Structures are given as structure tokens and as C-alpha cells.
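Raw record, unedited: Pectin lyase-like superfamily protein
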Amino acid sequence: MAYRNICNCNNYCVAVVVLFMGVLSSNGAAAASNSFNVMKFGAKPDGKTDSTQAFVKTWASACSSASGQANAVMYVPKGRFLIKAVVFRGPCKTRRVTVRIDGTLVAPTDYWALGNSGYWILFIKVTGVTVVGGSLDAKGAAFWACRRSGKTCPVGARSITFNWANNIVITGLTSINSQQTHLVINSCNNVVVRNVKLIAPSESPNTDGIHVQSSAGVTITGSILQTGDDCISIGPGTTNLHISNIKCGPGHGVSIGSLGKELKEDGVQNVTLTNAVFSGSDNGVRIKSWARPSTGFVRNILFQNIIMRNVENPIIIDQNYCPNNQACPNQSSGVKISQVTFRNIQGTSATAEAVTFDCSPSHPCTGIRLQNIKLTYMNKDATSSCKNIDGTSSGLLVPESCL
Ligand SMILES: *[C@@H]1O[C@H](CO)[C@@H](O)[C@H](O)[C@H]1NC(C)=O
Ligand SMILES: *[C@@H]1O[C@H](CO)[C@@H](O)[C@H](O)[C@H]1NC(C)=O
């Protein structure tokens, strides 16, 4: 899906945070401890009372609790907390802030209440933040219905976003029914996402699980992704991303791209996906770019130890990406794809063609490797197709390699 203007909320965010800075220092109660409970700041676990300001104040206290406190905890107890769009901004005086959530954060039922900023829960310029546990319920159904109806709708909110953040851990989080992407990691360094569950119906539009962009050193492991769009989408400027032990489906699979939206675009480099199960997804592992000139590239990628169960396009490189055939650029992709390995991938395809390589005529794919592939379609060998590609294959290969 399209990922532009990911940060255009920024001016608004600054305004919101500055507004509440003044309130914080007056609350001396929490200063004695390095744990800050949202209830002490007025949050109500009834799912009805707007607790946004209580969360903002709690964050600001935890974030500025310096004076020798190297670590602080922002604590959200059991219960349902109604939260509107909220910004947790750094840098903090506190070296590390743990946001421990035992309860559920719920968005307003009226999707207009989150405005047009594109986010619901947003962390900006924070370092050393760990989010542990918790559930997010963005109540996306009404928003998806709005989009389907053709009425005027807001842009929709990503449930939890990290912009310009470093040394982040997100663990044990569950997110359901996001309006847009569940979790966005944008312009970050050193992020671990572990043991998360991101769930939305297969027909929900653009509910990607995790989107990573312009970020380095991201690990995603032990997670369940059931969505209406990509389980994980990997945007320009992603380097050293390691994904392991995930379950994907329903959804559109794990995608590098779409790339080549812009002429000048950063590349994607050093991505590994190891130990994954795809079930009933539209794609398994995919690289996609629009058919137009671009400075982008995809290099040094490894997809290995993967089980496909009834997946429509288990292995696909699509350099003529153009969903719904609308406004297709109809040129030749400038995105240079090289050194991509597909190893130990087996299971069932939901279509006859399980391996599709549709590379750019002007910038053919190079260094593509297939090793030990066994994909069947209705108990018969699946097929494969190759365009503008150079590479090698070894081991057992079903379908027969077209390289
Ligand atoms: C990608 O990985 C290689 C080693 O495989 C390393 O030399 C290179 O620096 C990495 N690229 C980036 C951008 O970190
Ligand atoms: C691209 O090609 C398709 C079919 O080949 C055609 O229907 C469409 O109008 C073309 N789009 C543009 C922008 O030229």
C-alpha cells in the first residue's frame, strides 16, 4: 500500500506536546517513585471516559523523571481505556522508559475523532523505550465500511507508530482491527518486535501488520499476523531487517515494496526471513516494484525454511506491480534486484504457477538463487515462469527451475 507523508503529522504533534508540558511539573505525587500509573493521572478503566490527557501526563512524568532515575515505568493496569490520537514524544531525561500495559487501549467508535493525522498512538524521537504487553483495539470496522461505501473518510490511523526512535522493544502486544497498518517503524534504529499478535479480517482494506521503512537493525520474531493487507511490508531505506518464526495469513504475505513509487528512492538491503508459515495468504514472499524509473534497489535478501499452505503466489517478484490495473506507469522498473536467495520452501500453492519472476526488462534481476523448493498445486507439480532474470538453482526443485 502507499506510504507517503508518514511524518506529516509532525507539526501538529509538536503543538500537542508543547501544550501539555506546562501541566506536568505541577503533579508532584508520582515523583517519589519511578513508576507512573495512568490511574493516578486521572485515567478511567471504563472504556468510556476519555483518558487521553491522563496518558499524556503520565508519559511526560515518566519521560522527565530524571534526577537519578535511570529507568521509569509508565503503567497501564487492567481495564479498557478510551484514548484519542496521542503523542509520546522524546527525547526523555529518563534513560529508559518501559510502558507496561495490562489493559486494553480502545479508540473512539467515531473514526473522525482520530482526525486526519494518520496515527492513533505515536512515539516520536524516543530512545530506550520498551512496550510490554497490552491490547490495542482501534475499532476499525466503521472506518473500513466508510472506505468501501465511497463516502468521504479521513485518511485512517495506524494503530502504533515509532518515528525517529532508537533502541525500542515491543513485546507481548496484541492489536486488533486497526484502521490502517497496525505497527509502523519509520526512521528507526535497533528495534525488536517480539511475540506480537496483529489481527484484522482478511477483507479489511490496507490493514498491514507491520510496516518498516527507512530503518536499520529491526528484528521481528515469534509473531502472528492475520491481516487484510501485507503481514509485513518493507519500504525504501530498510537495512538489516531480520524476521523469524512468524505465522502469516490471511493477508498479502511478506512484501519488499512496493518500491519505485519515486524516482529518487533508497534501497532495501540485508533482509532475512527464516522459519515462517504462510496460510491462505495471497502471496508468500514477494518483491514488488512499479514499472517506472527509480534509483531504488533490493540486494542481499534471504528467504528460508518456509512452509506454504494454500498460498496464491508463494514466490513472486513482480516488477510490473499495479494493483487493480489503475494508473499503471507502463514503463520499465528502474529498481535493481540482486542477490536474492529462496531456500527450503515447501508446501501448497493455490494457483498453478507457484514461482513467478517478472523482472524489469531494463534492469533484469541478477544473482537469484533457488535451493530446495517443493511446491505443489492440487497434488501435482506447480509451474514457474521467468522474465528478465539471471540466477542459479540447486537441490530438489519442484516446480522445475526456469532460471
Ligand atoms: C549488509 O550486510 C553485509 C554483510 O552481509 C555488510 O557488509 C553490510 O555492511 C550490510 N549493509 C548495511 C547497509 O548495513
Ligand atoms: C497501461 O497499459 C494498460 C494495458 O496495457 C492500459 O489499459 C492503460 O491505459 C495504460 N496506462 C497508461 C497510463 O498508459
